[in-house]
Amino acid sequence: MVARGLILAAIIGMVLAVGTGLLLSRRLVRRLGVLRDTALNIGPDTQVEPDPGADEIGDLSRAFAEMQRRLRKQEQARRTFVATASHELRTPLASLRLMLGLLSEQLETADPDLEDARDQAAAAQRQTERLSQLAGSLLDLSRLDSGLPLRRDVLALDDTCRAVIAVFGPRAEAAAAPIELTAPGHCWAAADPGAVAQIVRILLDNALRFSPAGAPVRVDVGAEDGRATVSVTDAGPGVAAEDRERVFDRFERGRDTAGDSGFGLGLAIGRELARRMDGDVRLEDGDGGAGARFVLTVPAAPPDELEAA
C-alpha cells in the first residue's frame, strides 16, 4: 500500500510538473513572440510597451523600449536639424538670387550703372561667403554626429592660440578690436590640436563679432583645477541669464544679436568638440560684469606624456 501510494504521488507530481512546465513555457514563448515582433517593427514611430516581468525577458523588453525612445529622440533631432538647416540655407540663397537678378538686369541695360553693379556684386559675394560658412558648419556637425574619433596629442595651448590669433589679425585690425594674449609660459594639454584650434577660432570669431570698436579682446591661457584652460573675453553686450545655456544649442542665438550674421552653430560645435575631448566650454561674465567670457577647458597633459613628447 505504501509503495502504491508513493507511485501514485510520483505520478501526480510528474503530471503537475509537466503541466506547470507547459504553462510556463507557453507564457515564455508568448512573451518571446512579443519581443520578436517588437524587434522586427521597432522604429522611431512605433510604440513599445515594456514587459512588466522582473526576469531577463522583462529586462530585454525594457531595453527595447529604451532603444525606441532614443531612436525617437534622434529622429526628432534629425527632423529639426533638416528643417532648420533648410530654413537657414533658404535665406541667403534667396538673397543671392535677388542680387544676381538685379545685377543681370543692370548689366543688360544700354547704360549700366557700374557703381550699383559693383555694390550688387559685393553683396552677392558676401552672401556666397555666408553660404560657404554655413556649409562648413553643417559638415562639422555631420562629422560630430558620425562619431569620428578625435586625436589625443600633447600640445602647447599658448602656441595654438598664437597661431589662431595671427589668422584673425587683419580682421581685428579692421574692427579696431586688438586681440591681447596672456600666457605665462607654456601650458600643455592632452587634446586634439585641430579641434582645439577650431574651438579657439569659434570663440574669437564670436568675440570680434560683438566687441565694440576700440575695445580689446582678451585671450588668457592657464590652468584651473588640474585642467588646461583658454578664456576669450569681449566687451560686448554679454548674454542674458536666460540664454546662457540656450546659446550652446544648435541654431540658437542670444536675444541681443539683432543684425548678427551668425547661424547659431559655432558655440554648439565648440562645446561638442570640447566634450568629445573630455573638456567643456562654459560661459561666464566679462570683466566687471560687462561683456562675456567663454572658457575652454581640456585635460592637462600628464607628466609622463610630457617627458615622452
Radius of gyration: 31 Å
What CATH architecture of the largest domain would you give? 2-Layer Sandwich
Q: What letter string, H or E per element, gives the SSE order?
A: HHHEHEEHEEHEEH
Count structural domains.
2
The CATH superfamily of the largest domain turns out to be Histidine kinase-like ATPase, C-terminal domain
What is the C-level CATH assignment of the largest domain?
Answer: Alpha Beta
% residues in beta strands: 5-15%
Low-confidence stretches: none
SS field, number of helical segments: 7
User: What fraction, in percent, of the residue positions are helical?
Assistant: 55-70%
Summarize the biggest pleated sheet: 5 strands, mixed
Instruction: Give the overall shape, derived from the CA principal axes.
Output: elongated
Q: How would you explain this protein's 3D organization?
A:
The protein has 309 residues and is of the alpha+beta class. The mean pLDDT is 79. Helix content is 58%, strand content 14%. The chain is built from seven helices and seven strands; from the N terminus they run αααβαββαββαββα. α2 packs antiparallel against α3, α3 packs parallel to α6 and α4 runs parallel beside α5.
Structure in a nutshell:
The chain has 309 residues and is α+β, with helices and mostly antiparallel strands. The strands form 2 sheets. It has a 5-stranded mixed β-sheet. Strands 1-3 form a two-stranded antiparallel sheet.
